[in-house]
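Tokens for Toxin-antitoxin system HicB family antitoxin. Go.
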Amino acid sequence: MAKTQLNVRVDESTAETARERALARGVSVNRYIEELVERDAGEVGHTFVEAASDFMKSYESLFAEEFPEPGRTGRRGGEGRPRT
């Protein structure tokens, strides 16, 4: 994969912390920062999936009533929306 160079300005304390953390992990500062960004991007996706799961759990009974399994009747006596 092609790499793109980014130039980032941080205060000396932040730069030193990045150097120390990278050294402790045995990676370059570039790789350390790349891993942080990848982890952050992954957390966003994970957070979305958790929120969607919580939503589905909260409204599970309503979905079951509106869209009953074949052979079961729901709120509309089995006359729900046609399945596609």
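The chain has a mean pLDDT of 82.
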